[in-house]
Design goal:
- The structure is a single chain.
- This protein is an alpha+beta fold.
- Helices cover 22% and strands 22% of the residues.
- It has a single domain, classed as SUI1-like domain (Translation Initiation Factor Eif1, 2-Layer Sandwich), CATH 3.30.780.
- It has 2 helices and 5 strands; from the N terminus they run ββαββαβ.
- It has a 5-stranded mixed beta sheet, with helices on one face.
- The longest helix is centred in the middle third of the chain and has 15 residues.
- The chain is elongated and about 60 Å long.
Length: 116
């Protein structure tokens, strides 16, 4: 555990024992569901982004590596930048239709969400 990982120690009570070691739970390895069982939602978002539009893909269930691989594929196919973190994929720009089409062709259950 890194010494600067203070968020993992938030609920730990102070100890005067010099040999005390923090015991935190290791993050679970979540198995990645096959594409046919994934139910993804594709959103258009402008909040907290200085008026810029981004396409969000939410609902992915699986490992961070698989999430990054899916994000990389979407970014390459759309020809734009983006990122993958905290269980969601961020694609720069309004690509809801294109992302939904790409995900559907790849075997994922993808729907547009957000009402715009």
């Amino acid at each position: 555990m890194a010494d600067n990982d203070w968020k993992s120690r938030l609920n730990v009570v102070y100890s005067t024992n010099p040999d005390f070691e923090y015991e935190t739970e290791a993050p679970e390895n979540i198995p990645t569901l096959p594409p046919q069982q994934q139910e993804l939602r594709v959103w258009l978002d402008r909040k907290s982004r200085a008026g810029k539009q981004v396409t969000l893909v939410r609902g992915f269930r699986g490992s961070e590596e698989d999430l990054r691989a899916l994000a990389s594929m979407l970014k390459n196919r759309c020809g734009v930048g983006g990122s993958a973190k905290e269980g969601e994929i961020i694609i720069q720009g309004d690509f809801r239709d294109r992302v939904t089409e790409i995900l559907t062709k790849a075997g994922y259950k993808a729907k547009k969400a957000g009402g715009q």
